[in-house]
Amino acid sequence: MTAIQALFLRGVKLLRSLPETDPALEARLLLFKAAGLAEREFVTHPESLVSARVERRFLKLVDSRRARIPLAYLLGEKEFRSLPFLVPPGVFIPRPETEILIERAISLAPKRGGIIVDIGTGSGNIAVSLAKSLPLAEIVAVDISSRALRAARANAGRQSVTNVIFVRGDLFAGLQRLGLQSGVDLVVSNPPYVAEGEWRKLEPEIREFEPKRALVPGPTGLEFIRRLVKGAPAFLKKGGWLAFEIGYDQSERIPALLGSGWTDISIFPDLSGIPRIVAARRD
What we know:
Number of strands: 11
Strand content: 15-25%
Largest sheet: 7 strands, mixed
Number of helices: 12
Distance between the termini: 68 Å
Number of domains: 2
CATH topology of the largest domain: Rossmann fold
Order of helices and strands: EHHHEHHEEHEHEHEEHHHEHEE
Structural class: alpha/beta
Mean pLDDT: 94
Radius of gyration: 21 Å
Shape: elongated
Low-confidence stretches: none
CATH class of the largest domain: Alpha Beta
Strand order of the largest sheet: 7-6-5-8-9-11-10
CATH superfamily of the largest domain: Vaccinia Virus protein VP39
Helix content: 25-40%
């Protein structure tokens, strides 16, 4: 048998070859996963021995990570706004930048009640986060992927939110049967916005393992956003808001893409100062 600390240090050494990685953090998280350890036990009893089975499980996880499988898929979850979200393989992994979209959406939503639609909900991180912050709101989470919707439902249950309903469909198609035409206060989305040419340049963790459909809408990266902007007015109330995330180089094209019918157009930066979140009010 091997001591926890020795196994951890072995994992750190093996993970040092990965680019842009914190090997100590990842080794610790993978060890917790393999051994069922808690942080306190790891810190207070580093000399404790683990079984050969745990050691094999840990080293297998480390090998998978070295093969560039995303850490979130190996752990089975990703933290978002300090909440753990289940993220099975094939479901888009939440990004920290999207937390800014949540903050903006909360500021735009009605203070009491209201209807909010999350287009392309993925793991449900946006819908569930909004549901927890706005318990009086009705949240409708839409995705074309049945796999994503299963994960989103599981995350809603895990976070004990009951004010979210899930709809399968492509953009707004699933909303028509709910009778939400001209009845929505806020449409929010983290859409696919990576251009086809950029996809080939992305790191292997994304390019080889995450669902391409959740990231790449077409050659320019703006195809989904165009459809989002075109379809939203039929469901938004007069004066309702549309808020969505954009790529690092897309902000200059947004005003022309929105065109007429929108007022109070604003673009907000992420924590790196990159224009990231668009908000616009329907005329």
